[in-house]
Amino acid sequence: MARTLIISNRKGGTGKSSSAVNIAAELHARGQRVLLIDMDTQAHCAYGVGITVARDAPTLHGFMAGRHPLEAAVLPTAWPGLDLIPGDPLFEHGSGQVGELLLRDALQQSGLAQAYDTIVLDTPPSLDALLLNALCAADRVLIPFVPHFLAGEGVRQLARVLFKIASRGSNENLRVLGFLPVMLDTRVNLHRQVTEGLGQQFGRGRMLPGIRNDIRVAEAFAAGQPLRYFAPKSRATADYTEAVDALLQRW
Fold it and tell me: Residue 142: phi, psi to the nearest 5?
């Protein structure tokens, strides 16, 4: 049975897609069968693994709209054992089928939950059926954040949603796995202060090693490859490797 990890933050621009792609690739490099699901209508994960999605191809959002089964949207990447269910940038938030358990039920009933070791979901920042479905399907939540002034607000908003999901019984086993600072520069006082502040508020033991600011992250996306294949000796690759090591130890 697959373990399910969602990458989420209520604030946009926090490195969710780059983290989802690179964490999925790191898990795959450790011998895991990994399914990456792009629930964000920006649909950036496909770029990160070098896939061009045909206009009428099945997608996660096509499944949510009721047009096809979830398993019809699975696409293989250039790395066997690392697969993608892409997003659809034309999907309108608020449309589609009603229900918070659609994704969880489909993963189970389709056999996808049995076919992979880990399922990684990239989520949108908006609070709608997409995010709620991801939270109801997940075992653990990883929260990336940019250590700027408003970082804490996005984290606190998501924490309130997590409590709501757990308290009403939609997913009582949902837990925060950790917080991941991205685009980090420890020489900047504000970065240190924000990271330390979140650690104090939510627990220092939940703070994962940070991902330093590195242009290679953007270059890897442009090249259609995860960091470990595009720039294996870059500092961001080393950072994601260390972060995934810590993530696996805490799971």
Answer: -110, 130
